[in-house]
Amino acid sequence: MAFFDPPQPPAPRPAPQPPPVWAGPPANTLPAALATIVVLGRTDDTVIALTGLAVYPAGCDLRLEVRSRRQDIGFPFGFAHHPGRPADGLLVGVLFSDGRKASCPNTGSGMGAQLTPRNGSGGGGAFTQDLWLWPLPPAGAVELFVAWPELGIPESSAVLDGAAVQTAAGQSVELWAPASAPETDNGWYAFGGTSGPPGVAMPAPQVVLPSAGTPPADSEAATAGVRTAFEKAFTAVDGGPLEVVVQDGAVLAGALAQARSNFPQAVGTAWVAVAGIVFLDPDRAAVSFTVHYTGGAGFGQQLGYAVLDNGQWKVAYETYARVLGWAGVTSPPPPPRRP
Questions:
Q1: Taking the mean position of all CA atoms in its chain, how far away is CA 44?
Q2: Is the pLDDT of residue 199 over 60?
Q3: Stronger pLDDT, 73 or 297, i.e. the higher one
Q4: 162-to-98, 116, 124, 142 alpha-carbon distances in Å
Q5: In what side-by-side order are the strands of the sheet with 302-309?
Q6: Bridge partners of residue 305, in order along the sequence
Q7: DSSP states of 243-298 as a string?
Q8: What is the pLDDT of residues 281-323, one digit of tens each?
Q9: Which residue from 87, 89, 301, 315 puts its CA 20 to 30 A from 239's CA?
Q10: Are 213 and 281 contacting, i.e. CB atoms less than 8 angstroms apart?
Q11: Burial (Cβ within 10 Å: 0-12, 13-18, ≥19) of residue 47
């Protein structure tokens, strides 16, 4: 009889949990490289530059570089490890064309977007830091800001092409199906199942898009059109007349005004994240999307539809009316349409 008891078999390890989309790039996808070298700010002896983007379907890594001839600076991206970095340190910010913005370190001015520090290294006057930008910026101007008061670099900015970023996202390669979010209460999803950046709910459940049908002749342009319609229709920043981006939108203008009156904070901070687009035929698309806002409970990811109306992709009337219903608004019935 042995003196020592045989070792007990190890407890089974829980399956690794995928990080939420706002926290970093997915492990199941190879990014598309968007080559660029842009000097963002400089003095005679120090330069801050953007030296490339690694673009994924839901966001992108920004590669920032600092080069300096000074001998008295340490690692400039200290906010990656010390969120309380003094205000005179290096500051980085991004502004989307639709008004969403993010900063690092988080100065409290971010709205609808997130900059998350990731890999960083350097020494001897050469430093590198990757910042995960989520969500993917929409088409239009993407303004990248830097400032470093301590070294005499004032706030300055450069403009990137959001359309080029969107195009690059379509060139990323998914290696295998993403892992589904766990149904447990630990790990990334320990915050009531809706972990996300401050003030942004990120529900774990995902809707299932229907099977694809015949796509439009120019599917890339159609995809961009659908995404733009949803982003403009569900964003607090005024995107112009509602009928431009919503089917029969003029009929829903009164309902939108009532929703704004009922819940001014939610409507005033709303923005949308489009997760997937599937074309049912050349004139219709199914869309998975999430409307984010502050001042109210989130409704999670939704299945909606877009239609091609007189050559313009728009959010379907019924989809927009359903979202307005969250604010306790009853929309009028859609007007008769020609067969």
A1: 35
A2: no
A3: 73
A4: 11, 19, 34, 6
A5: 271-281, 284-292, 302-309, 312-315
A6: 286
A7: GGTBTTHHHHHHHHHHHHHH-HHHHHT-EEEEEEEEEEETTEEEEEEEEE-SSS--
A8: 999 999 999 988 775 556 778 899 999 999 999 999 999 999 9
A9: 301
A10: yes
A11: middle
Burial (Cβ within 10 Å: 0-12, 13-18, ≥19) of residue 142? buried
187 vs 208: CA distance, rounded Å: 24
Helices (H) and strands (E) in the chain, counts: 5, 16
CA angle 291, 316, 165 (to 5 degrees): 55
User: C-alpha angle 264/265/266, rounded to 5°?
Assistant: 95
The Cα 179–Cα 100 span in angstroms is 29
What is the amino acid identity at position 107? T
What's the mean pLDDT in 168-181?
82
Give the pLDDT band of residue 123 (cuts 50, 70, 90): confident
To which residue do tokens 């766990």 refer?
Answer: 182
User: Domains of the chain by range and CATH?
Assistant: 29-169 (2.60.40), 207-325 (3.10.450)
* Chain position carrying tokens 């690794």: 16
183: Cβ–Cβ under 8 A, 6 or more apart, which residues? none
Tell me the C-alpha distance between 127 and 244, whole Å. 46
Q: Please provide the distance, in angstroms rounded to a whole number, between the alpha carbons at the two ends of the chain.
A: 86
Query: Residue 239 pLDDT > 70, yes or no?
Result: no
For the entire predicted model, the pTM comes to 0.53
Residues 91 and 28: their CA atoms lie apart, in Å, by 31
CA atoms within 13 A on the CB side of 197: 24
Q: What is the Cα–Cα distance from 206 to 276, expressed in whole angstroms?
A: 10
User: How far apart (Å, rounded) are the C-alpha atoms in residues 18 and 68?
Assistant: 37
